[in-house]
């Protein structure tokens, strides 16, 4: 009897705690920014050509430091931090915070990019995304504004959400949205606490081959408030740009990390191949504009692991000399 009562008490505490957490709203006292504003824009270089750098989910522009050093002599570089990352204020929550399919925050970033391009009189820019989510921003912007973009470079991006377990893979975009808005969002992300969130986050060893640097990247990503991370993640899961790749009129280079055999096969990181490799299956046949290269001996932060090899591939792409039949470098 005592054990039963103790179990009931424990379950009650857990349920009460879950009810107190609402990751569909900003924390009490949080001061959001304005919708349509970018978090931060840093300018580097003075070349006559331009690049706009878009760090991925959870990161700020500093993950591009080595990249900026490599290209700042030839390009005017606009290094963006997405709102809510890198200690910048996130946008206000939308009126219907359980609605992710409207992509409220994503559209706000696209608006911010348009404003940046207009303000700085940027033409024929090259969009560079690094890590997941920002690749969707770059591809979406290029498809909607081909007259403003000359090329797109995607480093370590996911083409779309692809489940580790095929039985749970949504069969189409409508099912994907229903899965996020009916189940994944309200039944998991809305009430997940910090400990559970961190334990289920990307693995600390997946970012860089140097474990100290890899853990540092994880720490940066983990500092983002959960409501901010949840909003971006659920909006990303409610998209599938692969359905529109046939509309691409801009050359796109996708550079994928190879990861180690250990990371690809261990249970706790078995999502890496579906996310970063399998999600791109069918992309090249869908559009002749997409070139996909796998970079050996790299984890997700490939600028950290193999800068010379990566810059060599990018330079070939920028100079229209890329050998698209050499899919592994």
The CA-CA distance between the termini, in Å, is 65 Å
Give unreliable regions as ranges: none
Label the overall shape.
globular
Largest sheet: 7 strands, mixed
Q: How many domains make up the 3D coordinates? A: 1
Count of helix runs:
13
Cα-atom Rg, whole angstroms? 20 Å
Q: Quick recap of the structure?
A:
It is built from 13 helices and seven strands. With 329 residues, the protein is α/β, with parallel strands linked by helices.
Describe the protein in words.
This protein has helices at 2-20, 65-71, 104-120, 134-144, 173-189, 194-199, 211-222, 226-237, 261-265, 272-276, 283-286, 302-305, 307-318, and strands at residues 40-44, 49-55, 75-81, 125-130, 149-155, 252-257, 290-295. The chain has 329 residues and is an alpha/beta fold. It has one domain: Rossmann fold, CATH 3.40.50. A 7-stranded mixed sheet has the order 1-3-2-4-5-6-7, with helices on both faces. Strand 2, helix 2 and strand 3 form a beta-alpha-beta unit. The radius of gyration is 20 Å and the shape is globular.
């Amino acid at each position: 009897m005592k054990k039963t009562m103790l179990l009931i008490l424990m379950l009650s505490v857990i349920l009460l705690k879950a009810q107190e957490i609402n990751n569909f709203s900003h924390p009490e006292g949080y001061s959001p920014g304005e919708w349509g504003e970018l978090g931060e824009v840093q300018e580097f270089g003075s070349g006559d050509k331009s690049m706009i750098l878009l760090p991925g989910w959870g990161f700020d522009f500093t993950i591009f430091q080595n990249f900026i050093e490599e290209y700042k002599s030839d390009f005017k570089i606009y290094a963006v931090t997405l709102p809510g990352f890198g200690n910048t204020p996130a946008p206000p929550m939308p009126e219907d915070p359980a609605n992710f399919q409207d992509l409220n925050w994503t559209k706000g970033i696209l608006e911010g990019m348009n404003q940046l391009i207009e303000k700085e009189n940027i033409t024929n820019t090259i969009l560079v995304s690094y890590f997941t989510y920002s690749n969707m921003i770059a591809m979406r912007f290029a498809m909607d504004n081909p007259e403003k973009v000359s090329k797109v470079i995607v480093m370590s991006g996911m083409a779309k959400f692809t489940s580790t377990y095929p039985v749970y893979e949504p069969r189409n975009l409508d099912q994907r949205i229903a899965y996020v808005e009916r189940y994944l969002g309200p039944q998991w992300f809305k009430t997940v606490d910090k400990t559970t969130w961190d334990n289920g986050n990307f693995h600390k060893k997946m970012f860089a081959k140097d474990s100290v640097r890899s853990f540092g990247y994880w720490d940066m990503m983990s500092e983002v408030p959960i409501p901010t991370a949840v909003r971006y993640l659920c909006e990303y899961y409610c998209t599938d740009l692969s359905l529109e790749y046939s509309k691409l009129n801009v050359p796109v280079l996708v550079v994928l990390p190879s990861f180690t055999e250990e990371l690809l096969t261990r249970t706790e990181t078995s999502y890496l191949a579906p996310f970063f490799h399998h999600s791109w299956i069918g992309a090249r046949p869908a559009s002749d504009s997409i070139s996909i290269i796998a970079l050996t001996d790299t984890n997700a932060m490939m600028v950290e692991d193999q800068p010379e090899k990566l810059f060599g591939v990018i330079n070939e792409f920028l100079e229209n000399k890329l050998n698209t039949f050499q899919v592994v470098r």
